[in-house]
């Protein structure tokens, strides 16, 4: 069971990393666009964000499952604890990016693009570090 959870956990983190990099590229392209092209890119970001909600939920569920499958006498190692910190940062950046994008959509304030870009960068960098730390934390 632990191996299946670990595979699912790695897939979820890798999926989140790929999606957040795609979202970052989308934001960079959209910053220079106008009209329908910018609207289409914003629609794509909203779709990716909805899927990312599910991916982050999968990261948390599989991570908690891995933690619960630790032997009763074993304590989580340092790598695991640092990884959890990066997953919390990933989740926080994702939530703030969603709030910023929602505000941009409601108000039409295009000056929020740099903040959105920074938050999405926080998501993919956190996910990247979480993958590395997951490998170190769950080595057999």
Quick summary of this structure?
The chain is mostly helical.
Describe the protein:
By secondary structure, this protein is mostly helical. It is built from 4 helices and no strands. The protein has helices at 2-30, 35-68, 78-107, 113-137. α1 (2-30) packs antiparallel against α4 and α3 runs antiparallel to α4 (113-137). The longest helix is centred in the middle third of the chain and has 34 residues, at 35-68. The radius of gyration is 17 Å and the shape is elongated. The two termini are 14 Å apart. The relative contact order is 0.17.
Question: What are its keywords?
Answer:
4 helices, 140 residues, mainly alpha
Number of helices: 4
Net shape:
elongated
The pLDDT mean sits at 89
- Main sheet overview: none
Q: What is the terminal-to-terminal distance?
A: 14 Å
Rg estimate, integer Å: 17 Å
Q: Which ranges are low-confidence, i.e. pLDDT below 50, for 5 or more consecutive residues?
A: none
Which band does the percent of strand residues land in? under 5%
């Amino acid at each position: 069971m632990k191996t299946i959870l670990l595979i699912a956990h790695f897939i979820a983190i890798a999926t989140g990393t790929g999606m957040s990099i795609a979202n970052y590229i989308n934001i960079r392209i959209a910053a220079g666009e106008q009209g329908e092209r910018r609207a289409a890119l914003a629609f794509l970001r909203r779709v990716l964000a909805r899927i990312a909600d599910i991916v982050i939920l999968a990261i948390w569920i599989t991570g908690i499952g891995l933690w619960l499958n630790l032997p009763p006498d074993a304590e989580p190692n340092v790598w695991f604890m640092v990884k959890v910190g990066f997953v919390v940062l990933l989740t926080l950046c994702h939530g703030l990016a969603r709030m910023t994008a929602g505000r941009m959509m409601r108000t039409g304030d295009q000056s929020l693009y740099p903040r959105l870009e920074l938050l999405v960068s926080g998501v993919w960098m956190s996910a990247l570090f979480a993958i590395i730390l997951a490998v170190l934390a769950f080595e057999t």
